[in-house]
């Protein structure tokens, strides 16, 4: 079936049973610094949260020079609080701020081919729609899926193109749809030639356990509302990214069981920018719970009441700024390219300070708990400083961490 435009279809009862949820306390100003392990409101009962919502969460802009890695963990990571950091990009990354589509070609090996994701005309990468739009088997029972009548549609499976064609798409030239290099460890794969341009990570992350840095290269893009299970220092290099944020405590207003993923197929078509098609083989056995079950910008009637209770805030990350995006925070991201046509971001991922006990068979997210990385992040020379007991030290038998205190050693990157 041809795929012409995303549709947020289907009806889902807002009275589906829900469990207990971590949430931010309401107060005046910023999000509460209280632990997130408390139970959230039971939205399955015949009452609303309208009287409880007394604040709009705001995100501070803070000069990075006012923080140390230790105070960053204490004030923001340990409290699961996003912050916009100015002056936090490593000096070695500064040349990346002047990248253009043309400079990508100049830096790359000749004849390079890259894997990228085709996007819909509006730049959207995923959306929820009626499963009946897809041919194939719909009687597959996947663990945690509450609404078998819905799928999370993905604009298209990644395709391989020449870097020259990718650059042409950024300029809106040629026979290509919008193409997006959307993370997925691409600095270790298609875009490895740029890896040496981004050594290390923002210094405020030094007390966290580093995983990897991913690169986002595209034009006008829209990443659907979702959350990730990592700590993220998101550096904007070229253009701007607009983040719509909701705290973890809004999860019962957004998630309603796991969603089955369905991958559209992009087909080239002479004289046009190709077509997106729904095919039976696109229905996967993947089921995810980190995507919103409805469009928060245009919620269907069944979800209008829940959507009205979201504590949304919008943050624009400009070139040269770094957004700390904590574990579990919902985010919808709109890319706005520079005049060159390029929008580029680098996200440094770290092991999560918090974790969720969340078997795949469950249709509810679990409570936020402190993970193993929490103790590592709060380590001091005297021992482990534990949040909630100011100045208290917990003795540990763990010795010094072997190798780099950064987790993966930054020097183990490819050479230019």
Q: How many structural domains are formed by the residues?
A: 1
CATH topology: Jelly Rolls
- Structural class, please? mainly beta
CATH architecture title = Sandwich
Span between termini:
46 Å
Q: What is the count of β-strands? A: 25
Radius of gyration: 22 Å
Mean pLDDT level: 78
Low-pLDDT stretches are: 5-54, 380-415
Tell me the name of the CATH class. Mainly Beta
Helix content: under 10%
Spatial sequence of strands, sheet with the most strands: 2-3-18-11-20-9-8-4-7
Strand content: 25-35%
Spell out the CATH superfamily.
Answer: Jelly Rolls
The major β-sheet equals: 9 strands, mixed
Categorize the overall geometry: globular
The total count of helices amounts to 6
The multimeric state of the shown protein is single chain
Describe the structure.
The structure is a single chain. The chain is mostly beta strands and 416 residues long. It has one domain: Jelly Rolls. Helix content is 9%, strand content 29%. It is built from six helices and 25 strands. The chain has helices at 69-77, 101-107, 163-170, 251-254, 304-308, 372-377, and strands at 2-3, 60-63, 83-86, 113-118, 126-130, 150-154, 159-162, 179-182, 210-218, 221-226, 231-238, 240-246, 259-263, 265-267, 275-277, 283-288, 313-317, 321-325, 330-336, 343-350, 354-356, 368-370, 379-380, 383-385, 393-394. The protein has a nine-stranded mixed beta sheet with strand order 2-3-18-11-20-9-8-4-7, with helices on one face. A four-stranded mixed beta sheet has the order 5-6-13-16, with no helix packed on it. Strands 10-19-12-17 form a four-stranded antiparallel beta sheet, with no helix packed on it. Helix 1 links the parallel strand 2 and strand 3.
């Amino acid at each position: 079936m041809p795929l012409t435009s995303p549709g947020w279809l289907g009806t889902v009862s807002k009275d589906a049973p829900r469990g207990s949820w971590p949430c931010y306390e309401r107060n005046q100003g910023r999000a509460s610094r209280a632990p997130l392990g408390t139970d959230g409101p039971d939205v399955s009962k015949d009452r609303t949260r309208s009287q409880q919502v007394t604040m709009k969460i705001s995100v501070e802009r803070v000069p990075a020079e006012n923080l140390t890695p230790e105070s960053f963990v204490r004030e923001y990571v340990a409290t699961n609080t996003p912050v916009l950091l100015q002056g936090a990009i490593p000096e070695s990354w500064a040349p990346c701020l002047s990248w253009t589509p043309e400079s990508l070609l100049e830096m790359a090996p000749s004849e390079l081919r890259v894997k990228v994701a085709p996007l819909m005309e509006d730049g959207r990468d995923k959306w929820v729609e009626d499963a009946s739009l897809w041919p194939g088997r719909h009687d597959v029972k996947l663990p945690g899926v509450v609404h078998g009548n819905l799928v999370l549609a993905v604009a298209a499976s990644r395709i391989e193109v020449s870097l020259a064609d990718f650059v042409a798409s950024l300029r809106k030239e040629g026979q290509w749809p919008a193409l997006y290099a959307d993370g997925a460890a691409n600095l270790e794969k298609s875009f490895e030639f740029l890896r040496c341009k981004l050594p290390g990570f923002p210094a405020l992350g030094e007390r966290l356990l580093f995983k990897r840095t991913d690169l986002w290269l595209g034009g006008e893009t829209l990443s659907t509302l979702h959350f990730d299970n990592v700590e993220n220092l998101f550096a904007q290099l070229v253009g701007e990214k607009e983040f719509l944020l909701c705290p973890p405590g809004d999860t019962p207003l957004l998630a309603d069981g796991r969603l089955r993923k369905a991958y559209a197929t992009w087909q080239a078509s002479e004289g046009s920018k190709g077509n997106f098609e729904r095919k039976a083989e696109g229905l996967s056995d993947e089921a995810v719970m980190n995507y919103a079950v409805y469009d928060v910008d245009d919620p269907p009637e069944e979800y209008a009441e829940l959507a009205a209770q979201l504590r949304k805030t919008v943050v624009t990350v400009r070139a040269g700024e770094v957004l700390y995006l904590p574990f579990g925070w919902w985010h919808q991201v709109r890319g706005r390219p520079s005049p060159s046509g390029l929008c580029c971001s680098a996200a440094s991922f770290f092991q999560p300070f918090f974790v969720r006990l969340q078997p795949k068979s469950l249709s509810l997210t679990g409570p936020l708990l402190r993970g193993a990385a929490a103790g590592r992040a709060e380590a001091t020379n005297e021992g482990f400083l534990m949040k909630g007991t100011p100045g208290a030290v917990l003795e540990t038998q763990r010795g010094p961490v072997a190798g780099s205190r950064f987790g993966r050693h930054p020097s183990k990157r490819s050479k230019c």
